[in-house]
């Protein structure tokens, strides 16, 4: 089954309600979702950590 990926970037200064709704407290923040439910999250600029989030998300797809 192919994995579908959608990436978004949000200007949280201009869209504070979105930042609050998605519990973004620091930048950068990365979230992975499956069927509308958050399955992975990571805060910070850590390449290895982001790669792990992606790999874990794909494995759960």
Automatic annotation (TrEMBL):
InterPro entries listed in its UniProt record: Thioredoxin-like_sf, Thioredoxin_domain
Q: Which ranges carry the Thioredoxin domain?
A: 9-55
Top-level taxonomy: Eukaryota, Fungi, Dikarya, Basidiomycota, Agaricomycotina
Q: Which domain of life is it from?
A: Eukaryota
Protein name as catalogued: Thioredoxin domain-containing protein
């Amino acid at each position: 089954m192919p994995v579908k990926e959608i990436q978004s970037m949000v200007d949280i200064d201009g869209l504070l309600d979105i930042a609050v709704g998605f519990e973004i407290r620091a930048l950068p923040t990365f979230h992975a979702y499956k069927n509308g439910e958050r399955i992975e999250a990571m805060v910070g600029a850590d390449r290895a950590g982001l790669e792990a989030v992606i790999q874990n998300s794909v494995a759960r797809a």
